[in-house]
Amino acid sequence: MDSGRLVEIAGAGPAGLSAAIAVVKAGGIARIYERRRDVGMRFHGDFQGIENWTTETDVLEELESVGIQANFEHTPFNEVTCFGPDGRGKQFHSKKPLFYLIQRGRGEGCLDSSLKKQTLSLGVDICFESSAKRFPQGGIVTMGPHRADAIAVGYLFKTEMENGAYVAISEQLAPKGYAYLLICNGQATIASCLFDDFHNEHQYLERSVEFFTNKLGFKMNKPRHFGGNGNFSLPKTARKGNILYAGEAAGFQDPLFGFGIRSALLTGASAGRASMLNQPEMYEHYWKQRVRPFYRSASTNRWLYNRLGNKGYTFVLKRYSNGRDVREFLQRAYAPKLWKSGWYYLTHWNKRDSLLTLREGCTCTWCKHKRKNIS
Ligand SMILES: Cc1cc2nc3c(=O)[nH]c(=O)nc-3n(C[C@H](O)[C@H](O)[C@H](O)COP(=O)(O)OP(=O)(O)OC[C@H]3O[C@@H](n4cnc5c(N)ncnc54)[C@H](O)[C@@H]3O)c2cc1C
Known about the structure:
Elements: E1 6-10, H1 14-25, E2 29-34, E3 47-51, H2 59-65, E4 75-77, E5 79-83, E6 89-93, E7 99-103, H3 111-121, E8 125-128, E9 139-141, E10 150-158, E11 164-168, E12 178-184, E13 187-194, H4 201-216, E14 221-230, E15 239-240, E16 243-245, H5 261-276, H6 280-290, H7 292-305, H8 309-320, H9 326-334, H10 338-348
Bound molecules: flavin-adenine dinucleotide.
Flavin-adenine dinucleotide (FAD) is lined by residues 10-16, 33-36, 42, 48-51, 131, 142-144, 152, 228-230, 247-249, 253, 258-262, 264.
């Protein structure tokens, strides 16, 4: 082992911080360059979920196995209420946690600030307000998304409602996406997550707020607005010489629903270990085995989801709301399958993401979607 080797990392999000932890645990020295003045500045304390359905193994166990402690506040959720386009709600349950609710940002207990604590206790040097433009000796790039394939807009607010997770699927609330309301210990996040028609984001958000407030009868106390974007793509390689790309910077994010934290943490940790050992091919092997098959499956799911529309959503919700364990259902839906890989190849043969190609009429520099006239 190359003891004491310095590994430089660009970006202090979940991927960069987990990479640093792995470097130190493998016996090296890690230095992170973060362009903002603290970690988690892309977020504002909003709730997100670490998915726990793609594998039978619990995600927290998997993280522990790569050296990441769950020292951040996390609440397991085994139940979610899903509203269809007709406004009817159906409850879905799972025996094991479906996801772990966490907060993003620099506040106490948030994922980002807690991972920062872990790295600092290991002696990692985080250089804030600095970006690394070149890594001549190699390094790890974890700088997050570089374009918008999906966006989320929402509000954080205080509430007296009980803990709960609610999702609404409707083209009127979130085209090709979903609206959600997450409540935990007196705080809530409401958002519309769009995969199309980004320019009308505010109308979709206001409709989602109206929908959930009518359904559940609550008022938003001290609402604060937030928004963000995400990108996903499956690279041919996540390596440029000795520079490894991890997390969203490599495009590793669930293309069906936009869950990216788990793959950011896992690919970050693997990139950190491989860099420290000076074996970049080890990282290539890892993500191709662990991330790529799930990505292809989720990408085919997205291809299908994009074609459902309101009638399709209603049909799917009716068909699958028969008391089956929702975690088991999602595990099957995300499981890598030969036909899904085949379909992925067919829809990506010319290297363009056929779901998200530039459409005529959109001239903006950040998204790939045109503006729709919504009624
Ligand atoms: C509103 C919203 C809701 C989401 N909800 C969920 C959810 O519920 N579950 C889920 O799993 N995922 C969710 N995601 C996706 C998830 O947040 C990301 O997949 C995850 O944060 C990716 O981690 P990362 O470390 O790759 O990138 P990031 O978290 O984006 O971190 C990148 C870091 O790099 C820094 N940086 C950028 N450029 C430079 C540079 N040039 N030099 C130095 N530093 C730089 C940034 O400031 C940032 O700190 C959501 C995303 C959004 C926007």
